[in-house]
Structure formats: C-alpha cells, structure tokens
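During the reporting period the student researcher (J.K.) took over the structure-prediction task from the postdoctoral fellow and processed the backlog of single-chain submissions. One of the processed entries is reproduced below for the supervisory committee.
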Amino acid sequence: MRKKIFLFFLLFSLYRLSAQQATVVKFDRLQQLMNEKSGTIQIINFWATWCAPCVKELPLFEKLRSESTDVKVTLINLDFADKVKKVNTFLLKKNIQSEVLLLDEIDYNTWIDKVDKSWGGAIPATLIINPKNGKRKFVERELHEGELQKLIEEVQ
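J.K. obtained the following structure tokens:
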C-alpha cells in the first residue's frame, strides 16, 4: 500500500512540473519582448483566467507553440500579481506549456497605448510581430481556428 501511495505522489509531482509557471513582470519586460530583434515571429496574447473568450482561445496558442518552430508564443496574463497562485493552478489544470508572464501593472492606461495605439483595453487581445521586417498585426477579440495562421502570414 505504501508503494502505491508513494507512486501516486511521485507521478502527481512529475505532472505538476510539466505545466508552465507564471513569472510576475513589470511592463519593461513586456516592452523588451516586443522589441526583441530575433528572427522569430513573436505572438503575444493578453488574457485572464476570468475571461471566458480568453480561455477558449488558449488551445490555439498551445497548438501553434507545439507545431511551429519559427514562432514564439508568450501569454501575458492580466490577473493581478497577488493571484499568481491562482494563475499557476490554472496553468497546471490546463497543462499550458507556453511562456506565461503575469503583468504587474494595475494602471492599464499607462501602458496599453505602448502595446498598440488602437487597443481599447478589451481582452483577449493578440499582438503579432515580425522582427525581420517590422510588420505588426494587432487583434482585439477572440481568435478562432485558422485565424492565427492567417495573421502570421500577414506579417511575413
């Protein structure tokens, strides 16, 4: 019986290690990400655990991350920084593997325009950046199957 309990806890611990953990950051880290000059297309998605359309589209980003080597997916969580435990539990439950940054900036008005001048502040929102040619695409709504690939093609 002890071996079964030990095995259960060992497997549970390994499962917990498989999901991503959110890193709490300030806007300057996000700004660095948006200005990276690597050859990789950046997909930056703004979301929150309480936003149903955000949660609904997360599998699209996870699928892209797992199938494509020429894009980098970063999920920017907008839950408050004191909710990091809640966010990490959510990531574990959903088995999110993409990089997750929890943005610790309460005053959205100070940084939203720096992401994109057209952004009214609604989420989900997605920014796609091609650092090779400087093209950017910003979408302030839920994405559906096939749309993400079309947006990537628009910045290539």
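The committee noted the following: The beta strands are 23-25, 41-47, 71-77, 99-103, 125-129, 136-139.
J.K. will present the remaining backlog at the next meeting.
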